[in-house]
Amino acid sequence: MNVTPFATTLRDGVVLRGSLWTPPGAGPWPALLMRQPYGHRLASTVVYAHPAWYASHGYAVFVQDVRGCGDSGGTFAGFAQEAADGSDSLAFVRSHRACNGRVGSYGFSYQGLTQLLGDAGDPGADAMAPAMAGLDERRHWASEGGAHWWALGVAWALQLAAQGCRRRGDHSGWRQIRSALADGSALEQGLELLEQHDPQGMGLGWLRRDPADSEGWPVHRPPAALWRKPLLLVGGWYDPHLNGVLDLWRRSAAAGGQPVLRVGA
I want to staple 111 with a disulfide (CB 3.0 to 4.6 A). Which of 36, 59, 138, 261 is the partner? Predict the structure, then answer.
């Protein structure tokens, strides 16, 4: 098994970094791509097999830090950055010497949405496996029934804010956020901490908006070609993003696709 770093230069000059796992031998191979904000070395292994496992089954596996996260350059702006960055990253993978031109994508939550967004006309990956994701930031990510998912939203926003502190070298801010998450005080202090450490963050933007009113809430629109691609859609019984997964399934089926839906414990 081989592991090497890679770097993708985007159209605006920002460089995104990650790691590539490849099987033994010369290749090329079909590729898998995961784009995520939590550190490419972790590679979502809290819920997925390690990239080495996929490589052992004959795939070149690219795991990339999105803009403004991990080892990548730029400033993190949340979902709004992912259409253009995702299209550039997918083109990079297709043209990489380790890839035979066929690309699949996988990942859950933020990593699920990065698979769905792209420039207009971008055909996207050849097959996708988004889990726990949706297109409507109000209905599928931040709220339900006119009320915020408060504990989830605050904790997730603070997780991203803590990573921002670490990137800036603000160790005091990082410790303050991590302590609040650990002792539960984040539920009461969360907004204050976000105002202090990530005032422009997407998570704080959600918590500031009225969840009972759709005005001002983004709804993302994937390229039309996506809906007829092979889709494996994964959700959970107690998954706050399940409505998003079901919406993806309905949209794909209505467009003439044949999505596979799996919902389990």
Answer: 36
- The two three-digit tokens of residue 138, written as one number: 């109000």
| Count of CB atoms situated within 10 Å of the CB of 67 | 25
pLDDT in tens, 148-170: 999 999 999 999 999 999 999 99
Contact 11, 20 (CB under 8 A): no
Q: What is the pLDDT of residues 96-136, one digit of tens each?
A: 999 999 999 999 999 999 999 999 888 889 999 999 999 99
Secondary element (H or E) of residue 175:
helix 171-183
pTM over 0.85: yes
Would you say 243 and 137 are in contact if contact means Cβ atoms under 8 Å apart? no
